[in-house]
Amino acid sequence: MTDFSATRALFDLPPDLIYLDGNSLGPLPKAAPARMEQAMREEWGAMLIGGWNKAGWMEQPRALGDRIGRLIGAEPGHTVVGDTLSIKVFQALAACVEMRPDRRVILSDTGNFPSDLYMAEGLIRMLGGRHELRLVDPEAVEDAITEELAAILITEVDYRTGRRHDMPRLTAKAHAVGALTIWDLAHSAGALPVEVGRGGADFACGCTYKYLNAGPGAPAFIYVAPRHAGRAVPALSGWLGHRAPFAFEPSYRAGDGIDRMRVGTPPVLALAALDAALDVWDTVDMATLRQESLRLTDRFIAGVEAACPELEVVTPREHDRRGSQVSFRHPEGYAAMQALIARGVVGDFRAPDIMRFGVTPLFIDEADIDRAITIIGAVMNERLYDAPLYRTRSAVT
Description:
The chain is built from 11 helices and 15 strands. The chain is of the alpha/beta class. It has 2 domains: 4-28 and 285-390, Aspartate Aminotransferase, domain 1 (Alpha-Beta Complex), CATH 3.90.1150; 33-282, 3-Layer(aba) Sandwich (Aspartate Aminotransferase, domain 2). The strands form 4 sheets. Strands 4-10-9-8-7-5-6 form a 7-stranded mixed β-sheet, with helices on both faces. The radius of gyration is 22 Å and the shape is globular. 46% of the residues are buried. Its EC number is 3.7.1.3. One of its GO terms (molecular function) is pyridoxal phosphate binding. Catalyzes the cleavage of L-kynurenine (L-Kyn) and L-3-hydroxykynurenine (L-3OHKyn) into anthranilic acid (AA) and 3-hydroxyanthranilic acid (3-OHAA), respectively. Pyridoxal 5'-phosphate binds at residues 85-86, 113-116, 155, 184, 187, 209, 239, 265.
């Protein structure tokens, strides 16, 4: 069993704030500043360039990849950290297309995060426009899996609605018609149990700054199934994906296994924060986390619906179709969210009318949920959002 009161104590959260935005940016782990200072003073400061060898900087992407791999059900040695999620999506998608040269269709859904779709569009342009990005409604993905597909690119949990795809089921159907699969785990890793190995994923990728709490702009990860590790072609052939980076050869030779998915120099300071953030997970049982997430999101949905029926819940009620967030639709969603933030309930807004609330049991408990419901009810029923200061849109919503 996981002691969530103990995990809550591991985060530095402002008092009297109900932070329901861990699905966008996780809070600061208390251990992260000291770990980063250690990397800056004892490693960078004292060792200078020697830190690459003495402090193990060069090995960090693999070591931290395996720590994340444990949380997503990956086989050891098949997950690596570095770069951004968009880059990792591009790498995975380019490898899939190369592995299915006789197929021209990439399937995704209209609920996917736009950056994934932009990466697909860019790749298609680079390949001369001979491929097609085919988008269907999230509910129509399974029926759209046909023998013309090279790959399916699906984010397991919809960033707006919190709707969850059955990734093993979609993967099984894709494999039955000869297509490959890419699982985007941006809203899954650290939010719910994931089994990329047993689920048959060909590739998977995700970020570490949401539920994994590694900080703004923290690096992404990529998983490559063992059956593909030695044959996936790295379209972004960076020097650290080379078989012998410090031989400085003029031509590229792909590294062994997951190493070929490395691109640029590891972001050592960011990896120090990630290292500290992952320590929190050493005491967390993912099944227990999921059970508590569902209990709290059930309570939140029921409470908000009772307090303010004008908010339309768009997150599935069925447990197997829900991530770890709850989203509501309202025409004044942006202003309402700003009014809530001003009163200490922090969620966020996604255009055109979605109010999102992430529920993270590591630091959110039943008392937080109940207080949030009371404040949401007051803001909505008293139209406290109906003020000019709440309608001015910031660059980040």
